[in-house]
Every structure is written in structure tokens, then in C-alpha cells.
Specification:
9-stranded parallel sheet; TIM Barrel; alpha/beta; Non-ribosomal Peptide Synthetase Peptidyl Carrier Protein, Chain A
Length: about 350
């Protein structure tokens, strides 16, 4: 059985302190949340997906900066993830990013070739690129050429395939190797599955096998939800690292748990209500500083539901929190929740 544990990973010219990454997630993996996850042990974060074409036609970056914003000093190594369906968009977008005084500090450019969402796929981007290998190769080759001018490695995230019949992850991994990817992440579900069903770790293991000896690290994604499942993925697939998506929503502490599990250390106790409330306040404060209080409150509602998930008295206080319109209201609800939890 594979014995890989917590270890540093070298991707191109960059070395990560550890092998557990936060997945790019629309509406979740903003700079505030990535910073919280890094504090808990995440080795790498990734922005929400951003349109390469949108950047190309908005070279000032003002319309997309909210999603591009990074803070390596606080969040550690970070990848900026782009999606698109035309190589020229990437050729022009990447220099705009890497010549920016802040965005140029990104550790990686990540190309999204796995998003299953209809509005992305119907344009020919995301996981639709797994159906068009010549186009995927052109986008990757162009991106690598553009980023290499700035000595920034390019990574790729993709899926098992479009569906079970067109499950071409192994062939796609070879394409990534041949056209210059410095690392890949494989989500063990097809586009047809979306986020349902079970992730196919055997598929991930086959990608590891085909890239063995290439120097290209492989991250596995799908159904890693705690320290034990992270250990199992490393053991059963041979991946170099794991990437955590939905299991991190409302749970940045998962990175501390996984780091401890992979390091052979004692697993930290789950956060109590007070610790959760404090993290929610920090998360909401960070969003408010970026978006303003009103918009931050609205956008935090999905995250609030995740923070309350599985907790005592959750249904009562979650319902109240989802109706809150100000930070003060959220704070009062959290205080009541912490008190109720302490009295049970």
C-alpha cells in the first residue's frame, strides 16, 4: 500500500509546504475564505473561475478584479483559475494578469477544463473541452507559452470525462503532459454526474500511473471529507496531494484535521460553537471589507448554512441568520447560538 503522507510538493519552479489544496469554487473560494483555510493548513488556494475572454475585453481588470484578487502575504501560494474556449483569449488574458503589480504574485495559472455548470459548458469551456482534445491542447499550449514569459507554471483541473462512455481522463492527462502542464488535478466524477454519486478513485489512480516519471504532480479531488478519507486517497490512488472542495465549505478546520492525519499527529477536536461563531465573524468581516456590509451579508448566507450544518440548535439559528441584513444582527444571533449550545 502507498505510504505517502504530508509532504512538500514541487510544481514547476514552485514548492508548496504540504500537499493539501483548496479547490476553486464559485461563490466560496474568495480571498477571505482562502486566507482562513491557509491559516488552518491549506497548502494552496485557487481563485474562483474567471473568464479569460472577460479579461481580454476588459484589460483594466476592474470588472473581474473582485474574483481575481489575491493576497499571497496572508493566504500563501495561490493559483488564478481561468476558463474559456478560445486560445487567443488566454494568450491575451495571462499577460494582463501577470503584469499586474498584485496579480503577478500568483504562484500558478490554473486552466479550468472540468467545470460541469451548463452556462460554462454550453460555450465550449470547462468540461466541454474534454470532448475537443485539439482545442484543449491549443489552449494549454498557448497558456503555457504566455505564462512561461513570467516563469509562472500552468496547471490544469479536469474530470473523469464527459460521461461513463466518454471517460477519457487518462488520455486527457497525457495531453496535459505533452503540452506543458506543470501539475494536474483530477475530479473523479464525470460531467454528467455533476457533484452526485461517488467519485471514481480508480480513475484517479490510472492518471497517476500514466503520469508516473513525468515529474507532473497529481492532485486527487472528490469525496475527500476528513483526515481518514485523505489518507485513503493517498494510499489507494498514489496521488501526490488532495484537493478539498465542498467539504471545506463552512469548515476551514478540515485542513488542520487533514494535516494532522497525514502527519501522524493527534487530530484536533472539532470546533465548538464559540469557535465557529468567531470564524463566521472573521469571514463576514473580511467579505464586508471587500464588498460592503449589505452585499457581504447576502453572499454570506450560503456560507452561514454550511457553518451551521450538523450543529446543535442549528435549524433555529440558521433560519434567523439567513434573514439577517446587518453584521450586528448576525452577531446577536451568533451570541444566542453560543449561549444555547453552552447550556445544553
Amino acid at each position: 500500500m502507498n505510504t505517502k503522507r504530508w509532504e512538500n510538493i514541487t510544481i514547476g519552479s514552485r514548492t508548496l509546504n504540504g500537499n493539501v489544496a483548496l479547490a476553486p469554487m464559485a461563490g466560496t473560494s474568495d480571498v477571505t475564505f482562502r486566507t482562513l483555510c491557509h491559516e488552518q493548513g491549506a497548502s494552496l488556494g485557487c481563485t474562483e473561475l474567471v473568464s479569460a475572454r472577460g479579461i481580454r475585453y476588459n484589460p483594466s481588470l476592474d470588472r473581474s478584479f473582485r474574483y481575481l484578487e489575491i493576497n499571497p502575504a496572508k493566504e500563501g501560494p495561490v493559483a488564478i483559475q481561468l476558463f474559456g474556449y478560445e486560445a487567443r483569449d488566454f494568450a491575451e488574458a495571462i499577460p494582463l494578469i501577470l503584469e499586474h503589480p498584485l496579480l503577478g504574485k500568483a504562484s500558478f495559472i490554473d486552466i479550468n477544463m472540468g467545470c460541469p455548470v451548463s452556462k460554462v459548458v454550453k460555450t465550449g469551456a470547462g468540461s466541454a473541452l474534454m470532448l475537443d482534445l485539439p482545442l484543449a491542447a491549443s489552449i494549454l499550449e498557448t497558456s503555457v507559452r504566455a505564462a512561461s514569459t513570467y516563469s509562472v507554471p500552468v496547471t490544469v483541473k479536469f474530470r473523469k470525462g464527459w460521461n461513463e462512455i466518454q471517460a477519457n481522463a487518462v488520455v486527457f492527462a497525457q495531453l496535459c503532459r505533452d503540452f506543458g502542464a506543470a501539475a494536474v488535478t483530477v475530479h473523479g466524477r464525470t460531467r454528467e454526474q455533476l457533484y452526485l454519486g461517488t467519485a471514481d478513485w480508480d480513475c484517479i489512480a490510472r492518471v497517476v500511473q500514466v503520469l508516473a516519471g513525468s515529474g507532473i504532480p497529481v492532485f486527487g479531488n472528490g469525496d475527500v471529507k476528513d483526515g481518514e478519507s485523505a489518507r485513503r486517497m493517498l494510499a489507494e490512488t498514489g496521488v501526490d496531494g488532495v484537493m478539498i472542495g465542498r467539504a471545506a465549505q463552512g469548515n476551514p478546520w478540515i485542513f488542520a484535521e487533514i494535516k494532522a492525519a497525514l502527519s501522524g499527529e493527534e487530530i484536533p477536536l472539532p470546533p465548538n460553537a464559540r469557535e465557529r461563531a468567531d470564524m463566521i465573524r472573521r469571514h463576514l468581516t473580511g467579505l464586508s471589507e471587500k464588498l460592503g456590509e449589505s452585499l457581504a451579508i447576502r453572499e454570506m448566507r450560503t456560507q452561514l448554512a454550511c457553518y451551521f450544518r450538523g450543529q446543535s440548535h442549528a435549524s433555529i439559528f440558521k433560519a434567523e441568520a439567513m434573514q439577517a441584513e446587518t453584521f450586528e444582527q448576525v452577531d446577536r444571533i451568533l451570541c444566542k447560538w453560543v449561549q444555547a449550545s453552552a447550556e445544553q
